[in-house]
């Protein structure tokens, strides 16, 4: 792992697209939402960027100066977890707070612009997905929360720091407190210039949220878009959560071609859920299907208008969050 100071970083970012020392911002942004970003407490207050040898393990470490990055993963809180003392206080004192399972409390989003929001332009009309999106308390500025809530969350995040002193910012699993920012959408988002995108680049599938004061905010890419290649098999992007009380899986699948007319999502216990189909609407000649199913997802079957099976896709086994992101 290479450590560079902020001046070296600026020099690399100013390099040309072919500069081998320049961070691959497009790849970094497309890694998916399960990459944990961390904020580090650095000696002497000097900011540093740690760029891993491969984009797959890169982490941005900034000085403890109020800058942050967020980890907005929907965490599957174990059903036997208990409320933390901070979550109990939030439930009692934050207007609109509600307990969603034995170990998690959801609170309303404050009236505030996110200081780390990545605003993007989208092509066409985004499609709402079945599950809301959630942030952690420290995703926002400290001033929008009661001091005890922000400081208590940050203290818990620091207590869960890695051996090198870095710690998660905007986490939800550490305290069991989630901020409900409203619906999430599947969209075709145009790349931002600072990600290394070109104005002529096409849009790519992404998950966004709608902040009416400033438009759509990029939350995460789908990790890969190999399914857009002619003849490629279905790819499934699944996320498990106890946010509704019981374990459910939200799954979005991408398929090459626009012939999909119907899709069945099948849980491990055999429960079948009819998925929503977007064929040729979000992206020309591409299909997306999605649904939320009880328990763990096992298979997705896509059919054409005549009822013929286009693909019967069984989710492959996986061991780590990164491996399980694309199945």
TrEMBL record:
Could you confirm whether the keyword Membrane appears in this record? yes
List UniProt keywords, sorted A-Z: Membrane, Transmembrane, Transmembrane helix
User: In which domain of life is the source organism classified?
Assistant: Bacteria
Spans traversing the lipid bilayer? 40-62
According to UniProt, the name of this protein is Uncharacterized protein
Name the source organism.
Answer: Nocardioides thalensis
Source lineage: Bacteria, Bacillati, Actinomycetota, Actinomycetes, Propionibacteriales
């Amino acid at each position: 792992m290479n450590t560079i100071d902020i001046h070296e970083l600026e020099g690399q970012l100013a390099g040309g697209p072919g500069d081998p020392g320049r961070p691959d911002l497009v790849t970094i942004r497309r890694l998916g939402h399960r990459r944990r970003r961390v904020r580090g407490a650095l000696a002497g207050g000097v900011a540093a960027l740690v760029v891993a040898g491969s984009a797959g393990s890169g982490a941005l470490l900034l000085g403890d100066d109020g800058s942050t990055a967020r980890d907005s993963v929907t965490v599957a809180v174990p059903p036997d977890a208990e409320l933390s003392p901070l979550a109990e206080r939030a439930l009692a004192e934050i207007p609109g707070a509600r307990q969603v399972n034995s170990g998690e409390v959801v609170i309303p989003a404050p009236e505030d612009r996110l200081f780390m929001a990545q605003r993007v332009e989208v092509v066409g009309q985004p499609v709402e997905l079945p599950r809301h999106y959630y942030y952690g308390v420290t995703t926002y500025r400290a001033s929008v929360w009661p001091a005890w809530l922000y400081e208590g969350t940050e203290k818990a995040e620091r207590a869960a720091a890695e051996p090198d002193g870095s710690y998660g910012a905007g986490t939800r699993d550490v305290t069991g407190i989630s901020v409900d920012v409203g619906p999430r959408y599947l969209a075709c988002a145009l790349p931002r210039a600072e990600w290394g995108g070109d104005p002529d680049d096409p849009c790519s599938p992404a998950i966004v949220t709608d902040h009416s004061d400033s438009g759509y905010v990029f939350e995460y890419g789908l990790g890969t878009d190999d399914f857009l290649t002619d003849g490629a098999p279905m790819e499934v992007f699944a996320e498990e959560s106890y946010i509704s009380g019981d374990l459910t899986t939200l799954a979005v699948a991408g398929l090459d071609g626009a012939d999909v007319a119907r899709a069945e999502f099948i849980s491990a216990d055999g429960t079948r859920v009819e998925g929503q189909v977007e064929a040729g609407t979000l992206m020309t000649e591409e299909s997306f299907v999605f649904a939320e199913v009880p328990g763990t997802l096992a298979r997705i079957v896509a059919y054409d208008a005549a009822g013929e099976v286009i693909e019967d896709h069984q989710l492959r086994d996986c061991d780590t969050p990164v491996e399980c992101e694309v199945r």
